[in-house]
Design goal:
This protein is mainly α. The chain has eight helices and no strands. The protein starts with 13 loop residues before the first helix and ends in a 14-residue tail after the last helix.
Length: 290
Amino acid sequence: MEKIFAIYEWPKYFNIKIKLISFIFLSLEFVEHFSVQCNKVIVAFHCKNSTEQSLKHLFKKMSFHQIFDIIPYSHFIGVMLQVVNTCFACCWTYVDLFIILINLYIAARFQQIARQVKFLKNNNFKSESKWKRVREGYTHICRICHLMNEKLSNFILLSFFTNVYFIIFHSFRSLTKRETHLETVYFAISFGLLILRATCVCWFGGSVYEKSEAPLHLLASTSSQMYNIEIEKFVYAVGYQRVGFTGKNFFRINKSLILKIVSAVLTYELIFIQILGISGKKASRYSLCE
């Protein structure tokens, strides 16, 4: 791709954009993960008198009770599980970030093609060779996009499954009472970050489809004097190719997907309210000290 696009300049401020988005995402993930762990530590030491008992309560009762119900408890295993949990949290964030950055790059290349089409159209270029070079550049980006979609579709499906699951889980938790102010702060940060991440993946993923369609509107309005066989091929290439990223073809990433996720979350929220029989009251929750 870089050899073919050597005639174009590198997208302006793209390096800064990548670093800024990466810094924001990773920083927010650190704040979210740090806040939940701090909340658990404070509650654990509030419930137990000694450090040893507090650590045991933290790992066995609050963090990994499903595991320690099966295997004997030890502080070493608890620490190792905490390290693994932190690594998983980082990987989860990195998958979303990687999908966003790949979409950003391909969308930037489609935007360059659209600008080149606009330049040729405004200057009434009739040379078929120039239009052919732009069309081949567009086709090459489409092939790269299809290849990346094939390689990333599993990660995209995993990303959306995880994000939607935790959004619904936090929606359910919004019906429960929180015992500490720090837990309330964590809940607000975590829920907001989840919504932000899912929205960003949909928003930047949808930009690929929008940018890929941009040349079509320009080509459709070209004058008949400059119309040639290469422009006709270009119109067919843009009009009949479905460019974008999917989750194993179960769904296509676009901006309207945000509304579908919101609709699903609201539906499950209403189901939770009906099941719990809530009428203007918060659902009760178990004590974290038990």
